[in-house]
User: Fold these one by one.
Assistant:
Number 1:
Amino acid sequence: MTSIEIVTQRLRALADEFTQHWPIPGGIIVAVSRDETLLELPFGLANIDARQPVTRDHLFAIGSISKGFVGLTLLQLAEEGKVDLDAPVTTYLPGSVSARTTRCSRCAICSTTLLDCLPGPTPCRTKSGKAGG
């Protein structure tokens, strides 16, 4: 048995165990390098009622999984001095939001507001932590 076959076998066992202990019917484990896909391992069910298995071509709803990646990237850019978290979002995405979408008439939505992942616009918080600009 090759090393990739051993890894695939172990991952399949973990995936099977995962679907038995968590409320997730199925998914796909993917390993990639810069140039190629090394492994695609679909597991479980795409449709529980129809008992339809997950395939390599199955499309999943992304849900909120991208929030963590966006937040991490934004914080890395801020650390490098490329993004000011207290600057209005329109500094980087012109026309993306209007002043009417904030609850604060004196400031625009800033990056820190977006990082809060709140369900709607809230006032910007300045570096002092005070709301309202």
Note: The CA atoms of residues 46 and 59 lie 9 Å apart.
Number 2:
Amino acid sequence: MNNRVSLLLLSSLLVLAACSSQEQTLEEKAVARWEHLIKGEFNLAYEYLTPGYRQTENVESYGLRMGASQVEWQEVTYEKKECEDENLCVVHVNIQYLYVMPVAGGKEMVQTTTIRENWIKKDDGWYYLPKKS
């Protein structure tokens, strides 16, 4: 009987450990959101927005707006985060992008810029809060 109880407890702990390891960290979420944007998966990037923001813009509108960007995002790398407390952080990500300069005869220019993003932790995880346009 003790072996069965031990085996059951061990199995339960392994399941719990597997579930908790699947939850993304803030750093992983910030990078994953940009990876979706780079791939044009705007509906998936939309899921990282705060629930309050999603009430102000639907997924279709968000996708159209993101798809109309004048740059082609190419690569994202995480730089750092600065947290005011355990529920509010500014995440710095480096974005490499391609810009075609119409005034220069369509010359292509690849640049990298650092973007600072506000992330808020709610009960069920971290969410990106865009700045007002």
Note: The two ends are 64 Å apart (CA to CA).
Number 3:
Amino acid sequence: MEHPTVHVCEDCRNAIVNDDYTGLDYYHDREEADERERQIRAGLKRLGWMTPTDNTIEFSLNQCECCKIDGDGKRYEMVLFRMELSSALA
């Protein structure tokens, strides 16, 4: 079974891999950091559980597929794992 992949920004990657949002305070004031965290958490809720691969796009103009930010920069590939209810009960 092949799993779908998404490409995420560095902020989302840190949240996915380490459950770490502290770096947001470095680049943003408290209000902006809180908003970024809400965007990231909403994306994680929408996408579900995922894990990183070794694939990185060094420079991308594409939107982050998690938080939907439009900034350019690195994108990190993540593999999505969605378990169907019927297979979970089998």
Note: The radius of gyration is 14 Å.
Number 4:
Amino acid sequence: MDIDSKKDKSVFQFSNPSTKEAVFVINPRYKGQLLKVESQQFMIKTKVEEPKYLDESETDTRTSNIFVTVTNNETETLDDETPFLLRVTMGAKFKWSKSDIPLEKEGSFLSINGASLLMSYIRPFVTTLTEQAEIQTQYIPFINFVNKNH
């Protein structure tokens, strides 16, 4: 199958995703061996801003900002059992036509597709960050955003 990046462009587009926050701290009080730290459980939160028209004169193009945060520690405390603190937030402005994505479907489209697209940028960021530290490299699995409240 041949796909043309201009002709087959999706109706759902976004600005260049940007890192809004990146925190990574090795815990000096951790009692275990850092090189033997197993894969951490990551919590994922999404924030979808209320969709709006591109500008006041626009009646078809809609936009919304989406933010996804991944962390291994929601309390941000480093006790003896927590090997490190990692928190990454990325965001992007999404744009679409209401003639292609009806108003009643845009919420689920944003929270599922938008969050999935941003996770594809966060995942390698976390891997690269952790592989350059003195801990076992952390990999975030593919996430099912369907029917989830993150």
Note: The domain at 13-131 is CATH 3.10.420.10 (Bacterial Protein-export protein SecB).
